[in-house]
Amino acid sequence: MRIFSACLNFVSAVINRLLVKSKILPDNPIEQYDLNPNNPTFYIVKLNARSDLAALARVCKKHGLPNPTLQQELAGKELDRFIGLQNPPPLFGDTAKPTGALNQCKQIIEQLLESGEQNVQVIPVTILWGRNPGKEKPGLGTLISHSLTPSWFRKFFVLLFSGRDNFIRFSQPLDLSLLVNEKANVNELPHKLLRVARVHFRRQKLAATGPKMPSREQLFNSLLASPTIKKAISDEAKSKKISQQQARQNALKLLDEIAANYSDATIRVAERVLTWLWNKLYNGIDIKHTEQLHDLTNKGHEIIYMPCHRSHMDYLLLTYSIYHLGLVPPHIAAGINLNFFPAGGIFRRSGAFFIRRSFAGNKLYSAVFKEYLSQLFIKGYSVKFYTEGGRSRTGRLLPPKTGMLAMTLQAMLRGIDRPISIVPVYIGYEHVMEINTYLKELAGKDKKGESIFGIFKAIKNLKNYGRGNLNFGEPISINQYLNEQQPDWRESIHPTDVQKPQWLGPQVATLADKVMVNINSAAALNAVNLLAMILLVNDKQALSKPKLLAQLDFYLHLQRSASYSEKVTTPDESAEELLTHALKLNKFDVISDEFGEIITINDKEKVLFNYYRNNVLHLFAVPSLLALHLFKQHQSSVADCKALIKRFYPLFAKEWFLHELDESYITRILASFVDQELIEINGDEINITNSNDCLAKLQMLGRALSLTLQRYAIVIGFIQTSKGIEREELERESQVLAERLGTLHGIKSPEFFDKKVLVGFISNLREQGLISETNDGLEGSSDLCALYTHLKELLPARVWQSISDIVLSQAQHTPCD
What total number of domains does the chain contain? Predict the structure, then answer.
């Protein structure tokens, strides 16, 4: 019998070597889970199949893990390392013979109790052949090629059609020491171990493939049969005086316009195409903080991905990355402008569902879309949408649009069983494909619609775009958030008729802001945005190479030792390596003379570099204000520094979506300045180091915030010199003065003149209670006067004079009198 079994294993291994190509996650299981190959090791899998065993054996050999085909000695007894929970069914019939899994687990636990061994590793391993979720009503192709528990005959077709798409995921080893130390009936422990494993594999399968897919016809019929859409159809018929059948056809057309048509085959083809594309476009994609995603899926959470929106490339990059992490690609809320031939069909089969910019005046569309979104959550699909609504043209995060998030919370009020978590995602690039288009739009040109010609033009311009960054931010459990902020939210749950509760709007707005804060808390620094931070504040956007490297070293040390958030990522490379990499991107000029090299931004790139700086300016807001204050004063105190930051931080926090101020952050920044010998601290007293190099470093860092403070001074100046100013007049005058300053001082940053940014700041002042509405218009508070005084101390004299000349010429009284 052993000889026959050995022969079968050999044949299976040969077939695996010829037909099977495995993707392994994580890349290094030993390092990821701190495994010790010398410890007793067992592998627990769902299916007791020779092909699964052979595939696992090859992977274990490659990664230096114990061979699953061999037996493991434990307390003097030889035990099988490979534990399969379920046998394949017979060729004819439905019932498979039970495996020896229960007996194996009993033996392991008995030997553990006998020997007292504490280092046994029982590793769950998920083995999937293909990532097809399957159909709710399977067709012939699914019956032949895909099944979690196929017979030997069907397994042959599985290997043939999906062998090159074998997926093997190692999970955190089960801690048997905790299990055997429980005060439970020892005889129940093997059963508990198997139950834990079955739940784990069910969740892993759902995370990797998603739930079974209904046919498009099935989905539409079930949606049209829902009470919500039935009522909307009836209302449509009455309001438009058409028949019920015609109204139903209208609803069906809307469903066809909206609904995704997910195809695993399309995803697999797209994965190969995108792998080629990334290699063509980028030097690499850095993905960080992925462990929290797997933690959520292990706990059975449904995930909503909410990324920032920089480029159309975001759709592809995030979906591709999620797929490569072994998770099912999400259904993506895409603007209806992307539903053009042929991209629309490809996006739809990749999981995109399309949404109009406005639902206003179309109750049937609103009902159909909300019901479709609810069904996605109810069935357990992960979803992705961009809370900003559209792509940022300035590089700053846009104020969140709350429609999709509101519909998500309303879907939860249908009584969804699974917990739902939001995963904010920061996406950054060293080059954004559409950046030239953004600049034209900011200059007043109309936005062009997407088309097939745009795709061909983009393909034609494929070139080296540097590196991309994708950081997963701190997840937000919606269930936990509502429990804390709205404890009675479950009282609003109704399985069909979900009314909009009064608390929904305020909670959605607060939650949306929290998402944006978590996105910016996971920002990624790279060579381009760091060099943009340095060069844009210098005359002619140029600096000698030694000075540039010194400042870059300063910023790297600052961000590594005093990071705004633990999820912010900083490059591992040295300043010299980052500069060498950046110069290869054709964005910089190197001018050489007898005194050395000067690095400058290409003329055509100078305005565009504001976009990259804006991606990460929030990470330098507090350090920049401190540096500017210290450079101006030369002497200060820790108490004064903290007081200054506390005065400005609420404005920064609203503008850049920053988390609450932690005073230790200020302390860490000052400590970093001390480490780099820029300042000295004695008790509470601060003195800056009196050397040209130190002064230059602080001055350059302080200039990073200059445009922001100038904008503040413009708006506050008009308020402080008037006895009341109408909001419309304030917005208009502030924009005119900003444009004038731009002309006088060579300011090329588009958002400096952007009316939306000015309007946002005025709203921010009102929210902070710094201005109030009176019969005469907007008036400032005493705190606003103090802020105005600080601005005068911080801004360069020539800039302050330019602002004062205009503001005082229209003054109705002296500022802050």
Answer: 4
Coil vs helix vs strand at 686 = strand
> Which of residues 654, 672, 703 is at a domain's end?
703
Task: Evaluate whether 530 touches 578 at the Cβ level (below 8 Å).
Answer: yes
Both ends of the chain: CA-CA distance in Å? 100
- CB contact at 8 A, 483 and 432: no
DSSP string, 379-417: HT--EE--TTSS--SSSSPPPPP-HHHHHHHHHHTTT-S
Among candidates 246, 207, 239, 194, which has minimal Cα distance to 84?
Answer: 194
Q: Is residue 685 part of a domain?
A: yes
Q: What is the mean pLDDT of each run of 10 residues along the chain (817 residues)?
A: 52 63 90 92 92 92 94 88 86 66 88 77 92 69 54 68 83 79 71 90 91 89 92 92 94 95 89 86 90 91 94 89 92 88 88 87 90 91 91 90 91 85 96 81 63 52 82 96 91 73 92 97 97 93 95 97 96 96 93 92 88 96 97 94 96 95 96 95 92 92 94 91 87 88 81 84 92 88 91 91 80 64
Is 491 part of a structural domain of the chain? Answer: yes
Let me know whether 79 and 165 are in one domain.
yes
Distance of CA 715 to the CA centre of its chain: 34
Q: Where does residue 389 fall: left (phi above 0), alpha (psi -120 to 50 degrees), or beta otherwise? A: left
- The model carries a pTM of 0.90
Give how far Cα 398 sits from Cα of 274, 294, 335, 390, 528, Å. 28, 29, 17, 8, 21
Rounded to the nearest 10 degrees, the angle between the axes of helix 504-520 and helix 478-485 is 130
- What's the token pair of residue 52? 């699964």
- Contact indicator for 77, 158 with CB cutoff of 8 Å: no
Q: What are phi and psi of 68, to 5 degrees?
A: -70, -15
Contacts (Cβ under 8 Å, ≥6 apart) of 309: 386, 388, 389, 390, 391, 392, 398, 427
- Look up residue 725 and give its DSSP letter: B
Residue 145: the pLDDT is 47
Q: What b/e sequence results for 677-695 when a residue is b if at least 16 CB atoms lie within 10 Å of its CB, and e otherwise?
A: ebbeeeeeebebbeeeebb
Name residues whose C-beta falls within 8 Å of residue 561's C-beta, 6 or more positions apart in sequence: 668, 671, 672, 675
Residue 804, token pair as written in the block: 């004062």
Q: Which domain holds residue 184?
A: 2-209
